Amino acid sequence: MNPDEQYKPIWKNRRRVIFTTLIFCAAIITYLTGWGEDNRLNETIVQFSFILGMAVVGSYVFGSAWEDVTKLRK
Description:
The chain is mostly helical and 74 residues long. The protein contains three helices and no strands.
């Protein structure tokens, strides 16, 4: 059996986690922008929601690129 056939990553589950995280970040940002008070805590929460969203997208792209490179080396 080919090793590539034996291990198949479950991209469906990965995408589900990524999209859920991005929707959560968007919901936080939308809520605090529309109805949140203008204070430092909410500002920090919005900033870190953006950072989390960027980190998730960056990790997703980097992880898929890394997997492609790893498969090409075999």
